[in-house]
């Protein structure tokens, strides 16, 4: 089993191995005494996974109740948050009890935010069931729901007490879900792990799942330990995301997050090369790795559509937006750019 220690303000471990779900009760017992547990999941998560988790928790001495909300970004909202909080209160969970988030990023973010605010904060455990959640959203304590005005506009930093990643669950994901998470894996390779990048370039995602997830989580853990509250180096994790989010928004979320991030990484790399900031060889390597993971590399939208969406980015600070700019595969820098220059960056990215 890979055990990665996350040295956040409230430290915890991420456990990665095949078959961990059926042991989740015992694993949680090692960090939490028997108590009442609310298992939060959505109706996109196969029921047998929640059944397995629940059986294991009960066997380990926990009293378990389950809540299943409707899947999809549209339900990552204040209404679902309210339903979860009312559910916790109806059990009733106390400060000594626990929330277990079993699902992808939407479940983890929503359940985590509910745990952060219920009774001013109770412990929660992340059990990611998608690659994207395993390598990114389940680690680092960012929790949130969407507002009508945009994605993740209200939330909290609330670290889990434990993350349990069962690679058997990831091994059977469909190609689209796999590709969605793969974009984040490629991102970690570009940020600073040449071996990881080479594995992805060679199409090794399914065959080297445990090693790839471990390498991604190790890198995320190092960055979170350095900058838990996202005021400095953690912003590197936004590589491809400013334009990626704009691509998602421009198409009214027809492209999923990972697919938007993949194209966003291509655009920012092409723009960086055009400006003499990045080695030219980075672009063909990046596009090859993305294609090997089943991801798109061409942007279907025009500059005006991307610009309008990018200007609404929540990471914008007044007149400036911080771009994550690749210098080479394995090396990136943060670059604050005046918003008036964003249009030229997008032009360079689109090769317009
Ligand atoms: N998903 C980016 C971060 O956790 O900071």
Count of discrete alpha- or pi-helical segments spanning 4 or more residues: 14
Unreliable residue stretches: none
> Could you give the order of the helices and strands?
EEHEHEHEHEHEEEHHHHHHHHEEH
How much strand? Answer: 15-25%
State Rg. Answer: 20 Å
Keywords:
single chain; 352 residues; alpha/beta; Rossmann fold; Dehydroquinate synthase-like, alpha domain; 2 domains; seven-stranded mixed beta sheet; two-stranded antiparallel ribbon; 14 helices; 11 strands; binds glycine
Can you give a write-up of this model?
By secondary structure, this protein is of the alpha/beta class. It folds into two domains: 2-171, Rossmann fold (3-Layer(aba) Sandwich); 175-351, Dehydroquinate synthase-like - alpha domain (Dehydroquinate synthase-like, alpha domain, Up-down Bundle). The chain is built from 14 helices and eleven strands. The protein has helices spanning 24-29, 47-59, 78-90, 105-117, 131-137, 167-171, 175-192, 194-201, 209-226, 241-250, 257-274, 282-292, 303-310, 342-350; strands spanning 2-6, 12-17, 36-42, 63-69, 98-103, 124-128, 142-147, 150-157, 162-166, 320-328, 331-338. The strands form three sheets. It has a seven-stranded mixed β-sheet, with helices on both faces. The chain has a two-stranded antiparallel ribbon with strand order 7-8. Strands 10-11 form a two-stranded antiparallel ribbon. Bound molecules: glycine. Glycine binds next to loops.
